[in-house]
Amino acid sequence: MVDDLAEYGQPIGSLFPRPGSPDQWQQYRLSPEQLDFYRREGYLSGIRLLSEEQVEVLREELTPLFDPEHPGHELFHEYHSNESTNPNTVLFHALGAWRIAAAFHDLLWNPAFTMPASQLVEGPVRFWHDQLFCKPPRHGGVVAWHQDYSYWTRTQPMTHLTCFIALDDTDSENGCLRYVPGSHRWPLLPITGLAQDMDAIQTVLSDDQKAAFQPVPVMLKKGYASFHHPLLVHGSLASTSDRPRRATVINVFRDGVRSASDRSLLKGVPVIPVGAPVTGKFFPLLFDPSQLLAIDK
Q1: CB neighbour class for 146 (10 Å; exposed up to 12, middle 13-18, buried from 19)
Q2: Contact, 66 vs 92, CB < 8 A?
Q3: Given the DSSP bridges, would you call strands 245-254 and 160-166 parallel, antiparallel or unpaired?
Q4: How far apart are CA 207 and CA 222, in angstroms?
Q5: Quick one: 20-260 is in which CATH superfamily?
C-alpha cells in the first residue's frame, strides 16, 4: 500500500509551476471567441495544457498503473483492465490515479487547466474525479456514445465540466474522441452502456436528435486537451492503429454542488448526506478566481 495522496489538498511537487501574479495567470485565459464556441457547440478543443516534459512524466507514472498488482491499486475508486466484455478489444478505464501517482495528483492544480475550467464553469473549480482511458495498439476498444452527467446524477446542480487530456497524438485511426455538436442542449438521456455497442444510443433518440446526430472527430496532439459540457454526447471508435491512445480525464464542477445520494459518491469515500455540499479531502477546491485578487495585494 502506498500513501493516499488525497491527504494533500495542494500540489506536492514542482511539475506544474503556479503563476506568481495576476498578469502571469492571464496567459491561460480563454478568449471571448473560445467561450462563445463552447456555449454554442458544447465543447472546446485544441487547448495546450502540458509541455513535452510534463507529458513524459505522466506517461512514466501511467505505465505501472496498468498492473493490477500495483501497491496503490486499492486506492482506485474503479479499475477495469478491460471495460469491454470482448477480450479482443481492450479499453483500460480507471478512476483515482490522482491518489496514487504524484504527477497525476498535481495535474489537478495545473494552472493551464484550472484557469480555463473556472471560466467555463463560471466560478470556483472543485474536483469531482479523474479517469484514465487507454487503448492499446491495434485492438483498442470503443467508448460508446453517452452523456457524462447521466452517470453523475448523484450530484446536483449540473454545473460540471470534463477535460480530456491526450498523452498521445489522437486521430481517427487510434480512436480519437468524437463529439456531437449542440447535443448539450438535449435533455438527459438514459444510459445505454459505456464500452459495448456504439449504436445503442440510437434506441433512445428522438427523430430530431437522430437527424442532428452528426459527430465530429476531435484530433489532438499529445499535451493538448478538449473540454466538454456534461450533457454533450460523445464517444470514440475502436483503434486500428499500431499506436497507443493514452489519455487522462479531469472532471470538475463549480463549487457549491451538493450530494443527491444517501450512498457514497465514489467507492471508498465517506457518505455525504443528501443536500450537503460536496467538499472534503476527496473533492478539493482547485481554483478560486478571487484568489487572484489576493495575489495582487
Answers
A1: buried
A2: yes
A3: antiparallel
A4: 37
A5: q2cbj1_9rhob like domain (2.60.120.620)
Domain boundaries, the chain: 20-260
Measure the CA–CA gap between 219 and 47, rounded to whole angstroms.
Answer: 12
Q: Which three cell numbers stand for residue 80?
A: 477495469
Distances in Å between the Cα of 164 and the Cα atoms of 44, 48, 68 are 10, 11, 24
DSSP-assigned letters across all residues of 21-35: SHHHHGGGPPPHHHH
Give the residue among 5, 1, 8 at the shortest CA–CA distance from 99.
5
Q: How confident is the model at residue 88 (pLDDT cuts 50, 70, 90)?
A: confident
**Is 70 exceeded by the pLDDT of residue 297?**
no
Q: How many Å apart are CA 149 and CA 209, to the nearest integer?
A: 18
Instruction: Please compute the mean of the pLDDT values over residues 175-204 and round it to a whole number.
Output: 94
Q: Residue 106: in which H helix or E strand, if any? A: helix 102-107
pLDDT of residue 296: 42
Cα–Cα dist 9/297, whole Å? 24
Output the nine-digit C-alpha cell for 144: 460508446
Any residues with CB less than 8 A from the CB of 82 and at least 6 apart, and which? 90, 91, 92, 141
Q: Smallest Cα–Cα separation from 146: which of 193, 178, 181, 99?
A: 193
What is residue 73's predicted lDDT score, i.e. its pLDDT?
A: 95
- Give the pLDDT confidence score for residue 218 in this predicted structure: 97
What the block records as the C-alpha cell of 214 is 452528426
82: nearest Cα among 190, 238, 234: 238
Dist CA 122 CA 165 (whole Å) = 21
**Tally: H helices and E strands in the chain:** 7, 14
Output the average pLDDT for the chain. Answer: 95
